């Protein structure tokens, strides 16, 4: 209980500090932050969540029940990394005179992560099958 209260207090302190910093940036930045946050909620609720439900419903029909947990975990990791990587794919803010801004090939990096997740998930499915046959 003390740990939860302590973590909650730290979280509230961080929230208060962030709000204080935001309030010090001026009205136009506050409005931009609210618009950005509202846009994220609308994008999630209007696009991401319904798309996830459709994909999950289709997967239930196609994916065998023995591997559904592994497929679901892989989908969550891939989806989460995609939401972080997609804004960087078109390299906003990159400048030719400053190569240190967005210096990586983010599409390739994300594809490597996707490949690793698929390979690890497939290896875990195979490991599950080997364990099931042994027992």
Automatic annotation (TrEMBL):
The chain crosses the membrane at residues 42-64, 71-89, 109-127. Keywords: Membrane, Transmembrane, Transmembrane helix. This is Transmembrane protein.
């Amino acid at each position: 209980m003390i740990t939860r209260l302590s973590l909650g207090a730290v979280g509230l302190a961080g929230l208060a500090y962030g709000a204080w910093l935001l309030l010090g940036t001026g009205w136009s930045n506050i409005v931009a932050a609210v618009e950005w946050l509202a846009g994220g909620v609308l994008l999630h609720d209007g696009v991401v969540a319904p798309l996830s439900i459709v994909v999950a419903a289709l997967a239930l029909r196609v994916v065998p029940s023995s591997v559904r947990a592994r497929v679901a975990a892989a989908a969550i990791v891939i989806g989460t990394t995609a939401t972080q990587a997609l804004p960087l794919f078109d390299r906003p803010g990159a400048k030719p005179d400053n190569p240190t801004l967005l210096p990586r090939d983010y599409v390739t990096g994300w594809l490597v992560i996707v490949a690793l997740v698929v390979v690890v998930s497939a290896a875990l499915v195979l490991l599950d099958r080997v364990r099931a046959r042994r027992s």
